[in-house]
Amino acid sequence: MSKFSFVDLTPDSILDAVESIGVYAESGLLALNSYENRVYQFKAEDGHRYVVKFYRPERWSKAQILEEHAFAFELADAEVPVVAPVIIEGQSLFEHDGYLFTLFPSVGGRIFEVDNLDQLDVLGRLIGRMHQVAKAKPFEHRPVISCEEYLKTAKVQLQASNLVPMALENAFYTILDLVIKETTQQYINVETIRLHGDCHAGNILWSGDALMFVDLDDSRQGPAIQDLWMMLSGDRNNQLLQLDTLVAAYEEFCDFDHSQLKLIEPLRAMRMVHYMGWLAKRWDDPAFPRNFSWFAEDKYWEQQILALKEQLAALQEAPLKLLP
User: Cys bridge to 260: 125, 225, 253, 265, which one at CB 3.0-4.6 A?
Assistant: First the structure.
């Protein structure tokens, strides 16, 4: 089995894996939008709809995956709405033909609206409830958000990929190095807790009248603000209003360290660079050139040079402060 490929994961092997844990599909498999892992929805003979997730080989260890599951169960026990794995005969993680996989209940819902202040108010309380549980203990096996991984390792992955056009290499790496330097100087002495880790609108949905978290696949240790800042959009005034709404609601359930507001732009820079590094690292997976073909085009790298220049300017501005 290739480290980067799921070519051995055929429809027959998927069904065999699910049947190996006593679940029998009644419908066909519907592939869901996921590039890091492989995720399929189906209806079972028991009348329930499920989602089965096959983890990318060599990305997470068994201990790291089980720690993610344990966090989801801990949140569910505290009545924080989250899609937690299905437990079968005391287990939530299974293996078939070398692939680790997990079964989840299929949960439908409406999309979260990031520009809706009423919804941000509800979300702020939900994240506050999640973080109140998260603070109880740290992860032992899952990683910490760090400049080493998100910036320096990502740069190495970009250089190894040879995807940056030769004519743009000097301009790109010059501004990248400046962003890395500035971010590294600002992202220091950070207090961390367990996080959702990838808390954006795509991983939050309305199920009935309640908001619910989905996909803890990127959960790790990091600053609390990491689960809040991706909800901010628009110009600075809009972001200030959104931030004030989120934090006021958050603090109904969990104390918030206001000094972490200065980490928003460093975290944004880290996410930008890490995303490019991730695409470069996964380029050997056929799904990536097929779905991210623009990553190999000159225009994309020209845009990234401009985006990094804008981010460097943002890093040098005064951080956001809550409204008085």
Answer: 225
Catalytic residue among 121, 215, 284, 298: 215
pLDDT at 20: 97
Active site residue 285: no
Task: Assess contact for 228 and 199: CB atoms under 8 A.
Answer: yes
Q: Where are the alpha helices (DSSP H) in 146-230?
A: 147, 154-161, 169-186, 226-229
For 287, the enclosing helix (H) or strand (E) is helix 287-291
Q: Which pTM value belongs to this model? A: 0.93
Closest CA to 220 of 123, 103, 140: 140
List, for residues 106-122, the tens digit of each pLDDT value. Answer: 998 888 888 899 999 99
Catalytic residue among 8, 16, 115, 198: 198
User: Taking 90 as the threshold, does the pLDDT of residue 276 lie above it?
Assistant: yes
Could you write out the three-class secondary structure of 12-55? HHHHHHHHCCCCCECCCCEECCCCCCEEEEEEECCCCEEEEEEC
Amino acid at site 275: Y
Active-site annotation holds for 198: yes
Per-position b or e across 17-28, b if 16+ CB within 10 A of its CB: bbeebebebeee
CA 200 vs CA 127, 256, 270, 283: distances in Å? 12, 19, 15, 24
* Start-end of H helices in 91-142: 117-134
CB contact at 8 A, 248 and 131: no
What span, in angstroms and rounded, lies between the C-alpha atoms of 307 and 148?
21
